[in-house]
Structure formats: structure tokens, C-alpha cells
Design a protein that fits this description.
Blueprint (H helix, E strand, L loop, with lengths): L11 E3 L10 E9 L4 E2 L3 E3 L4 E11 L2 E15 L6 E15 L4 H5 L6 E2 L4 E3 L1 H11 L38 H10 L1
């Protein structure tokens, strides 16, 4: 069976050295560049930044079970105060890659389970799903971030404790103009 996966691609793993007998295991530690668009609107993994993969590839009766952690640098902005966020995250992933001739491969739809192509598996879709789903949709720089003043748009952390805005009822605005002209 010919494969269209490139064995030299950073997120394509070769399983030839992993025996196809249940219980056989191989550990893998690899640093790879992050793929494009690995994130959500306000936060994500910068393209090309380092992803550290600490994985275990385990032979099971239906395929290869890949499990372990992915550690990545995150960049984005706080959803409350719009300040930059730079942090690190570690997410756990676990995915079965079915052998081409397995019962799992024969009894499931193409998009229901990941599959080996020959001896190669493409970790990128699994990694993308795992990392993106773990990201907050509304990230904050810290849990108690007070956000921005709704009147002037300045971060509350940068404003004095007595900061306020005079709220003038529009019905009294004309009186305020008369008072200002008298002063």
C-alpha cells in the first residue's frame, strides 16, 4: 500500500520499530515546530515555535495507541484588559491509530478513528484537536483581572483607586452648560 504521508514531516511518526504485538511499547521525546493556525481568536501557539512531545506508542490489538503530553508556548491577549499573555501549557493527548486491516478500520467511518498509513501515522490532526480544545476561549492575564474602565478604556490596574467618571443625566445637560457659562 502506497502512502501519501511524508516520513520526514515533523508530526509524522514511523511505527516500523514498534512490533505489532499487543503490549509492545516505545517512548518518544521530540521537539518539533508548531504548525500554522494552532489556536483560537485570542490565544494560540505561535507558528514555528517549539512543541515538546513526550509520547508513548503502544501496540494494541487494533492498532497503535499514542498517549502523552504536548508542551507549548502560548501567546495572545487578555480578554478583559487586552494585555499580552505569554505562558506555557501542557496538554495530554491519547489517540488510537487503527491498523489498515483491523476490525476497527473496517467497521468505522473514515472520520471516526485515526488510521495508520502503512507504518506511518500523522499526529497533526490529533495534536490540533487536543491543543485547540484545551485553550480558553476567553483567556485572562490573571484570574482577578479587573479589565478596562468602560468609560475611558484604560486598564483598571493603571487607574487610581478613586477613578470615576461624572455621569450626567442627559435631561440635565442643558443646566450643566448654563452652570459652566456662569463660572
Amino acid at each position: 500500500m502506497s502512502t501519501h504521508l511524508d516520513a520526514r514531516a515533523p508530526l509524522v511518526l514511523d511505527t516500523r520499530e514498534l512490533p505489532r504485538s499487543p503490549g509492545a511499547m516505545r517512548e518518544l521525546r521530540r521537539t518539533v515546530p508548531a504548525p500554522v493556525d494552532l489556536g483560537v481568536e485570542l490565544i494560540g501557539v505561535p507558528t514555528g515555535s517549539e512543541l515538546t512531545l513526550e509520547l508513548r506508542l503502544q501496540s494494541v490489538s487494533e492498532g497503535v495507541l499514542v498517549s502523552g503530553t504536548v508542551t507549548a508556548q502560548l501567546e495572545g491577549e487578555c480578554g478583559r484588559c487586552l494585555r499580552p499573555i505569554n505562558t506555557t501549557t501542557a496538554v495530554y493527548l491519547s489517540e488510537l491509530f487503527a491498523y489498515p486491516d483491523s476490525t476497527t478500520a473496517e467497521t468505522t467511518d473514515e472520520d471516526e478513528v485515526s488510521r495508520l498509513e502503512g507504518d506511518l501515522l500523522d499526529l497533526e490532526p490529533t495534536l490540533r484537536d487536543t491543543v485547540v480544545l484545551a485553550l480558553p476561549t476567553n483567556p485572562v492575564c490573571r484570574e482577578d483581572c479587573p479589565g478596562l474602565c468602560s468609560e475611558c478604556g484604560v486598564p483598571w490596574d493603571d487607574l487610581p483607586d478613586d477613578h470615576s467618571h461624572e455621569a450626567v443625566d442627559p435631561r440635565w445637560a442643558a443646566l450643566g452648560k448654563i452652570k459652566a457659562s456662569e463660572e
